[in-house]
């Protein structure tokens, strides 16, 4: 939809617009209102270069695209009924809870193994463990390849799938070869399209899921889904979306919680939504409230930093990890909220 | 705490700072770190003019106050155990649900009376009905004094307390005289200190509660609580805080939902928190999710636009009102979430 | 423009939409694209109740209005060539600089009088002096009616027009009677529609200008212009718009500077834009940069806190006031930037 | 600085805090105020794990670090007087203007060569040309290795240094080998620490400058400078910072302009600031205003999309490129603003 600055295009302007869109096999249909006329573009209206050429005309005010831009991740795409299976769990059938350390301490492997067993007993369906970590300062501990062995040891001992963040091709190759089940793309790399393509290609046909965090900053929802489209277009449609708080900070939390985006995502994409309350709020005592709110909003699960002894953690753990005891109770509460939410899928005019 | 721009104040600078704070009966205590020295202000460190004079010095980088600025609304104030009673309901003892029309249609009084009975049957504890409404454009319907009779008629027929928004002294006087039980201060007037003072004074010793919405814009939490302090300082401490979404808009919602602010408020003030999901999300189908999330975050209640026939509503009703049937079901769910939340008040290291 | 959730409305849905818009004397024109059909509303498409009823339909995704909603303040309205004259100055013909104290200290009237003379000599065209001030805490100094005499004394001694902020009807009446030339509406009251109406009515046909600050929070531009429409509709079209920084805060400044909104305002309204850099950045040393940036963006002027002895100021003055000496130099620089900007009005395809 | 939740730590709490900080060779100094006691941490107070452990204690409210975290990029570091030389230009001595295409069209190499000559004649000091481009959708044109030859051809013909964006190691190696003079890191990769490290290492001792854009989202200023520290720590301190607009969008612009961050950056780091107005505002007609505002804020230069025939551009060019004629005039105006700004470096109490 083309909206001119003046109430109506002149004849010359109209002809210039028509000549541009015809190069892209589109047509123009004017819509004459009381006060002004606007111009619909019929055809592939989102063609980037065409849109930019139109926006480049002095007399055009704005262009509003109407169609969805997603081929694979759109809620009406052919993948609309695609189910993601991770370990024994089919995401969407019951709450998918991922729990474990922010960062694995390579000097204390037993701590992580102990936490892994504890979160399994508490009811988690997968284990998170950061092998490598993005840090604001270059001089902070950045993780260590050697922690991968510890993560895989936890997988073997518990039988649960494991999750870790990868930030570049080197880490991606190690994680895929080692047998990681869920690859996380962190918020700082959420729009690193080179990495998204590499991840899609490296995990194609390998039954490895990808947990794509939302980028820092309140980018539009379409940008978030479009990033997941990169992974799917690369060959792997097992993508889950992860709101994790945005900037600017809400004073008192680490970030501005954004679990409320969940129903908006579910209106546009079939992708499961797994919320990260730990990074949203950034303090252990606030995590259970935020996790329950995420489930109330219809999330398919949550990823929660949990540590058998938070004070001994490295990375964000001492500050934002809950204990396995709190996790156990929280999972029971999440299960109850899951039952409550079920009504909203069928009986009531409410998005699911 | 005074942080200088250079690693340390010079002798002359130090003496200038000391001479300023001594005018306000404060003292300076230097704290010498490895790389720099900072300077604590002992005494009434929040004295505005003193702080501004210090910040006016070229060599000062910033000033961080540490004490809470609230006398009455602070969680540690003498009012910490104050309970607000509205009708038969003690806020905080069970979910406080306010429901009804955004705007009363003065031409169709029966519609509002019908909705009032319906929300009572659905389980609401108070009835909202907009007599006057702030509208973005001056040419939109702004409400009508005559609707006050309809609101009071609903109160008499149902026996429930009633809630309406007031925007100026004229409306305030009418509402107080008519017997309104809850006065709402809307988001656009949330920092209208003249009105806040008038409301505090006009309702002092009258057992009228005030529901103060959060201002549009992501203002700091202290600014929100400070606005409630105006009402309490005016003479009425029966103030409830109401997050209702902030700008900038989350694309797809009317506002950016901010029920997640609830635990942060509860850390600083004893005031009950009643969330408004209707204005946060702005579309009926998203309201129940947002209402449940608010309760999961520990809210004391919600205020929900409910209409017996939303299509016939005026104001925001056709767009964002749910029906009494949806409300009934939602209140049952809210009651369940209330029970779930109880654990977090005692057993777990989680804020309540 | 109505955008349905599914690619096309069903026959029943289409008929329901048609029946609603016909009640408001509008028509529907479908626009059939490749992938979906959207529906233009011909007629008074912004009729609020109609729009809300359409948005209340389950199968409608969104509604995009196209026409401008402004009758008086629109850039194409009959007032498009209206000029505002204040004292001897016609706003828009050369930089309009307002300068003076944030707050008049009623105990030190001479300070203000001294600053008034000094800013006049420095080149200011009007004098600001806060008689009353909104303060975050109820216990801070709120201004004093007695300062009005001091403000008017400054007007008489210098011959320059004077500016002060009013927050309620009481203050408005005092200011109008005393002979204030420019009434400021502060950011906290920028959407206080009751006050805006009172101001429009009280100043109609009195040659008093209104300086309307932008509300705190990054509200949409149309909301800002619509607030000015309230004043114009009340009877006074001498309204100037004043960006003054928004929340959330940019770390290091008091607010997030928003002088960059100027060209966007100038695209939609004929109203002059006077930027307030003092409140945007909140520290004296950053004010000149921000003032020059505002002029580079095409502002018609700036309002700058200036104090002959900032350390002795009350309110925000010690922190953010510049001195008359800095102001004099700044005004010279602003004059140069004004000359530079002139090219952009005629020769280049750039908004003015 | 440790701020407890209660007015004072208990004896047990105090001892626990002391025992933690002593593990990291720090000491605690209590500061007793009227209403509460806070606790200074003397020593390396920013040690991440120590801070997180303290924040993990239930009775701690917050922790405020005071020292700057930057070793190389800090305004007081040993590099404080480091000058970056690019081609014949010493950044900071006169306006550094980079201009050219958003995206090089590999099918029309002559267009880019023509623009390169034109921007040189207009007064630009370096030529930008996008060989590869991040695109929201995977199906959009992503750039092409073959365009590198065209970029280098422009360098050879004009004798000006050239600038291009790199998004991964593959592109980085090609660009370094080909002789690119300025490597851009785009907003989406601004916190891609793996890439930042690679860039720092690959350009060490090669006289290649890096132009680091600010990440999307209003992240804190320290996060931006810390990202540049990654590159410097990798071996190359020739880093320039580039504000380019943040989310959320200001309605009417592509992003929310953030040139106003310039004085805040200059308070903390010696790094030059080169602003990108083209991506901030996103429409050609708004670019000159934003460029001049950036210079008014004290930027060392701007990077501007310029195209000899914008309508024939690909990427963002048709929408946001100005023409060489507009650029020539703009550079003259920028030179004048540069002269105006000079006063503020010496005579006035204003940051430079």
From TrEMBL, chains A, B, C, D:
Q: Which domain of life is it from?
A: Bacteria
Domain annotation DAHP synthase ferredoxin-like: ranges? 1-62
The UniProt keyword set, sorted, is: Transferase
InterPro entries (alphabetical): Aldolase_TIM, Class-I_DAHP_synthase, DAHP1/KDSA, DAHP_snth_FXD
Q: Which Pfam families match?
A: DAHP_snth_FXD, DAHP_synth_1
- Give any GO molecular function from the UniProt entry: transferase activity
Gene3D superfamilies hit by this protein: Aldolase class I (3.20.20.70), Phospho-2-dehydro-3-deoxyheptonate aldolase, domain 1 (3.30.70.1140)
The record places domain DAHP synthetase I/KDSA at 84-342
Name this protein carries in UniProt: 3-deoxy-D-arabinoheptulosonate-7-phosphate synthase
